[in-house]
Amino acid sequence: MASGRVYASYGAVYIGAVLAWLWLVDGIQPDWRDVVGVGLALCGAGVIASGTDMLECYTATDREKGSRDK
Fold first, then answer.
1. N or C, which end of the chain is more exposed by having fewer CB within 10 Å?
2. What's the pLDDT band for 32 if we cut at 50, 70, 90?
3. How far is residue 28's CA from residue 16's CA, in Å, rounded to a whole number?
């Protein structure tokens, strides 16, 4: 896994940890925008962490199907 993908995943987890810290330790309750933001960050990190391997898998499968049809 490339270091950029790891760094993106770390960033998303860090955002979630900071909001959890604010809520549990500092007593500041996050609003719905904070929760949605963490969700988007985690989803984005998941897409980045999956990398191009997923795309290459689909492309290889499509190539195999095309060669069988001929």
1. C
2. very high
3. 14
